[in-house]
Write a structure and sequence with these properties.
Pfam families: PsbP
Radius of gyration: 60 Å
Order of helices and strands: HHHHEEEEEHEEEEHE
Oligomer: single chain
Largest sheet: 7 strands, antiparallel
GO biological process, one term: photosynthesis
GO molecular function: calcium ion binding
InterPro entries: Mog1/PsbP_a/b/a-sand, PsbP_C
Distance between the termini: 150 Å
Strand order of the largest sheet: 3-4-5-9-8-7-6
Number of helices: 6
Protein name: PsbP C-terminal domain-containing protein
Amino acid sequence: MKLCYWLKLQLVMRNGGTREEGMMMMGFSSSSVMALGPSNHNLFTQNQTPFSAPKPLLLTSMAEAPPPLPLPLPLPLPSHKHKSSCNSLKDKLPVFLSKRTLNLSIVALLLSAPSTTISIAIAQEQELERYTDTKQGFTLLKPSSWIKVDKAGATVLFEEANRGTNNVGIVVSPVRLTSLGEFGSPQFVAEKLIQAEKRKESTKDAEVIGVSERSGQGGLQVYEFEYKLDSTRGGMKRIFSAAFVASKKLYLLNIAHSDQPENPLDTHTRIMLEKVLHSFDASSST
């Protein structure tokens, strides 16, 4: 109500009326108007801007709408480079440790390998002993636990105790040849050996595995052979054989060992038998 009276009073005064006239128009008595004091005819000076009520803002279209104020950009979070560095170090630390551990393991293995190899070699040497027949003129290593037996057709024969099918035999025969090369190549001699094995009634099958040649005492020509033999006498066997000619004698070494599918020749025994094979040679007095 007071606001309505005040607006009417302002309207009268803007049209040149006095405050008293405006109040009388609003229903005040003349005595009440006089009690308020003399009028200044206009409450506004010439240099003052008369009061006007604010006009409501009407938007006729979206184009007239003021642009929205830009939102404040979020403040950047404080960086923790030292923390991320620590994290990266922690991430890399297990990898570094694992690589270091692996390297140490490899070094330990390399350091222990020679001693292990030496131990195996010493053990194998202890299992072998030198046998030399000065009368026939040959020498070789033989398993120390294998015993010497007499057998027709063999110059010397050594057998494993309780397993006679595992044996080392040497046959010495006179020939007209001065060297093994005069008889033929290693492959040719291997074929002759296989043919001789297959002619035996006990042989079921024979197959060459390897052929090689080496130099012996004084440049002596030595042939070496390896083949598999399936026989009714002992079943599957592995045969290592060596031959050379010296002083018009043919020296033939034959090593036989069981090699059954259910119980194949183990690596340790194979290495030992190969040492016997490579040791077969003419003695220095031949």
